[in-house]
Each structure stands twice: as structure tokens, then as C-alpha cells.
């Protein structure tokens, strides 16, 4: 969860909570239109976020490779 990195953690990598809530809304819409919950497929997360906190890396004396920084969705400086 991105909140861990924004709260001072070194990094976080996981599914996008925003995307999970969007999928939840789609499922609720299907159920309200009459679909049976047991008939709905299980959907795995498809969107993941990498958040790196450079402040914490500096405090820990770690050097984050530029290739990792380039892949990050968000870098906290």
C-alpha cells in the first residue's frame, strides 16, 4: 500500500487501491442489475504501484539505482 511509503517507509509495491475500488463498483453495478454474485468471476488485480521514498533511503544510507527509480510510479523526495 502506497500509504506505508508516504508515512516514512522505504518503499511499497502492491495493487492499486483505486483500481480495486473501481472493480468493486463494477461488481456492485452487475449485482444491482440482477447478476448472481456466485456467477461473477474472481478478478485478480492487474494494476500495481511502486512507490519509493528517497528521504528514508537517504536516512538509511541506501542508494536507489536509477533503473528502479525509472520504474517507480511515484518517488517521494
Explain this structure.
The protein is an alpha+beta fold and 77 residues long. Helix content is 44%, strand content 18%. The protein has helices at 2-6, 17-32, 54-60, 66-71, and strands spanning 11-15, 48-53, 74-76. A three-stranded mixed beta sheet has the order 1-2-3. The mean pLDDT is 93.
Structural class: alpha+beta
With strands numbered from the N-terminus, the spatial order across the biggest sheet is 1-2-3
Query: Total number of helical segments?
Result: 4
Query: How can the largest sheet be summarized?
Result: 3 strands, mixed
Strand content: 15-25%
Number of strands: 3
Outline, from the CA principal axes?
A: elongated
What is the helix/strand order?
HEHEHHE
| Approximate helicity band | 40-55%
Low confidence ranges:
none
Radius of gyration: 17 Å
Mean pLDDT: 93
Q: Report the span from N to C terminus.
A: 18 Å
Please give a quick description of this structure.
The chain has 4 helices and 3 strands, in the order αβαβααβ. It has 77 residues and is α+β, with helices and mostly antiparallel strands. The chain has a 3-stranded mixed β-sheet.
Q: Notable features of this structure?
A:
three-stranded mixed sheet, alpha+beta, elongated, 4 helices
SSE topology:
Elements: H1 2-6, E1 11-15, H2 17-32, E2 48-53, H3 54-60, H4 66-71, E3 74-76
Amino acid at each position: 500500500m502506497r500509504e506505508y511509503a508516504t508515512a516514512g517507509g522505504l518503499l511499497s509495491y502492491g495493487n492499486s487501491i483505486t483500481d480495486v475500488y473501481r472493480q468493486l463498483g463494477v461488481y456492485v453495478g452487475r449485482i444491482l442489475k440482477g447478476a448472481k454474485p456466485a456467477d461473477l468471476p474472481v478478478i485478480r488485480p492487474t494494476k500495481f504501484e511502486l512507490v519509493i521514498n528517497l528521504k528514508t533511503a537517504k536516512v538509511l544510507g541506501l542508494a536507489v539505482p536509477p533503473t528502479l527509480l525509472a520504474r517507480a510510479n511515484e518517488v517521494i523526495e
